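Dear H.,

Thanks for agreeing to be a second pair of eyes. The structure we're designing against is below in token form, covering all 135 positions.
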């Protein structure tokens, strides 16, 4: 398993001008034409509003999205080896959806077991624990 340091991955993401162009560090309140609140991006959510409010004066909020992406194949072409991906969450959706705005920290081999076992919440908890330990 090849793993990368989190600080190096974040530097790569933040040094990309395309990512920085989509970065949103302030809460944005959005409404549709009927005046209803719209929550369509991370920086429009109440949780992000609270993160920004609690940040020390002068600090910028950087939210990270970390997940195992079962839609990507591993570098050796095996679907059972899922990449653990990190991305900056508070970027615009058009940026977040680009492959260049995500970095693979490592490829995670499925733990195995029957289909029923792999779908259980306990299995997912153990898998998450392995991911956290790997970071």
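And this is the sequence the design step returned. I haven't edited it by hand at all.
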């Amino acid at each position: 398993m090849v793993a990368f340091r989190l600080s190096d991955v974040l530097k790569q993401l933040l040094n990309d001008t395309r990512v920085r162009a989509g970065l949103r560090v302030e809460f944005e309140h959005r409404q549709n034409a009927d005046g209803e609140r719209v929550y369509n991006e991370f920086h429009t959510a109440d949780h992000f509003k609270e993160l920004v409010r609690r940040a020390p004066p002068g600090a910028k909020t950087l939210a990270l999205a970390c997940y195992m992406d079962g839609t990507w194949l591993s570098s050796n072409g095996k679907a059972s080896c899922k990449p653990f991906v990190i991305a900056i969450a508070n970027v615009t959706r058009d940026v977040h959806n680009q492959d260049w705005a995500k970095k693979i920290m490592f490829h995670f081999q499925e733990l195995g077991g029957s289909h029923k076992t792999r779908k259980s919440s306990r299995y997912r908890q153990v898998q998450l624990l392995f991911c956290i330990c790997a970071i």
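Two observations from my side: The mean pLDDT is 75. Helices lie at 6-15, 17-22, 46-54, 93-96, 115-118, 121-134.

Warmly,
E.
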